[in-house]
Each structure stands twice: as structure tokens, then as C-alpha cells.
Amino acid sequence: MNKHLATFRLTAIIAALLFSLAFAAARAGVDPGMDFADGHSVYRFYCYQCHAYAGNAQTLSSTYLNPKPRDFTRESRESLPLERMLDAVREGRPGTAMIGFGEVLDEAEIEAVVWYIRNELLGNPDANAKYHSPENGWTNHDRYSAAFPFVSGEISLTTPLDELDATQKAGRELYVSACVSCHDQPNSAEGEAIWETRAVSFPRRHYSHREPPLDVVSSASPYARHEIATIPENMTDAEARGMKLYQDNCAFCHAPDGTGQNWIGSFLEPKPRDFTSQEFTLWKAPDAFREIVRQGIPGTSMPAWRHVLSDEEIDAIIAYVGVAFRA
């Protein structure tokens, strides 16, 4: 695993956890019409990222957490008393990734989600609450069946391409470009998984958007537009190198178009720097800009890159930002 991939994977893990935190911290930013009518809806909005739709905690984020999220299918009402569950949702569990939702959910919603877990998921290994369902926007998931053997590990990513037929090659490409962001485990144990530094899946029915969908396939609406990289004309060699480094490392939070309004960036607080804003002038002060990138910004999601990128690579990124976004 190269240094850029390692940094991206760490960022992806943090971002997965931030989804839950951001949902909690920024519920005021969700459409006012959001109405959690039942515990199932609350669970699908806040809990599935770590505990899985089926409650078995077989999620990508769970593979990186210690201790791991609770597997509700292995518990019982006796092992998880009602008051203990209510308290966990209200206050969180210190020393774990379980945050408290007492400031986010009202008491009725807390009780509703706890009772949903107790009635539907506790001790139920056969819970049929899969993510890829029509209720979650996946009306014809079988159309991706060519990728299923790579998701399950039935076909290894290391299989030579000349040993794959046309359908398998198409399935491999689909897996690598899309499914791997969540389904990397069958292959990652062998170091085979190839991660893309772009969001490949956007929210489908977690909340409504005020704009008509821009992505008619995924119903992703506002986010797809910010996944288009800005490519200036007549770049120098340094600026072109900086563009690749930016897209491979920085675009995950700041967006390929520099706005920070992509899927990941929209959940971070404080927001990632919008390089397209007229208020952003650090490109005029490369020394100060370089130190921020090298050292990071405490109290934000901006990490220190000095152990990942060389000063020359950072300078190339700054050169690219200067020509790509300052207009």
C-alpha cells in the first residue's frame, strides 16, 4: 500500500465515522420536512453505517473500529436490558465510536429506534434488512451481478485479465470503480483491493434535496457536479503534477472542483476550504499555504501532510490551486 493510498484509507475511515457525527451535529441542515415516523427510519438514517441494516455490524467501518460496533443479532433482551440501550443512544458509550444522540433525537425517537432494534434485530441472524433494496433506491440491484463474484471473493482481483471473459472483465471494472468503496473485505485481506479517491455512491433516500436530481441513475442530486475536476489550459509541468497530486489527495475533502461541496466535504465541520471563494487568497502567500498543508489545522479535519507529501509535491499542489481556482 503506497503512502497516498494509506492516507486516503485513513481519511475514508474517519469520514465514515464523520457521517454519523455530522448527521448528529447538522440535523438542522437537513430538510425541515424530515420526519422520523418510526424506529426503522431512525435506524436507517443514523445507525446502519456501523451496525448494518441487518444489525449484524458487518460493515466496512466496523472492520476498522476497536471495539467493534455491537452485533445486535448476537444479543438478546437479557444481555441488552432496555434501560442500558436507551442510555447508550442518549449518552453514547465512552471509549467506543458510539456517540450520544440525546441532543439530536427526541425521547420518542430514541425509544422508537431502541424498540425497533429490540423487536426486529436482537437475536435475529435472519433479519432481512439489506442495503441494496428498493426501499433504499436500489430497484434493480441484480443489474450489477457481474461484479458479485469480486464482491464475494469468488474471483480474485489478481486473476490475470486474459483469464477473464468479457462479462467478468466488465464485472471487475465495476467492482473496482464502485463496489470496492464498501465491499473491499474479501480482497483487502490479501492487499488486493484498489481504492478510488472519488465518492462512488451518493445518498439515495436518506433525505430529500431541494433541487431536482442531477444524476438520474443514482438520484444523487447536488454532489455529482462537484466531482468534475477543474483542468486549466496551458499548465506548466509543475501545475500539471500538482493537479494529479491534488486530485489524488486533496479532492477527497475539498472536491475535485475545489469547492468543498462534494459528498464528503459537505459533512465536515468546519467545512473544508473553498478554494474558489474570493475570500481565499492563500495562493498569494505560498510560504504560509505550505505550512498549513504541512502542519494541518488543529480542531479541523485538515491533517498534517508533511509525512505524506514532500515540500516539492506540496508546492506543486499550491501552484495548481493558484491557476485552477483563483478565477
If you had to describe this structure to a student in words, what would you say it looks like?
With 327 residues, the chain is mainly alpha-helical. It folds into 3 domains: 3-121, Cytochrome Bc1 Complex, Chain D, domain 2, CATH 1.10.760; 145-196, no CATH class; 227-324, Orthogonal Bundle (Cytochrome Bc1 Complex, Chain D, domain 2), CATH 1.10.760. The chain contains 11 helices and no strands. The chain has helices spanning 3-25, 39-46, 48-51, 82-91, 107-121, 148-152, 166-177, 185-188, 237-254, 286-295, 311-324. Helix 10 (286-295) crosses helix 11.
Topology record:
Elements: H1 3-25, H2 39-46, H3 48-51, H4 82-91, H5 107-121, H6 148-152, H7 166-177, H8 185-188, H9 237-254, H10 286-295, H11 311-324
Helix pairs in contact: 2-5, 4-5, 9-11, 10-11
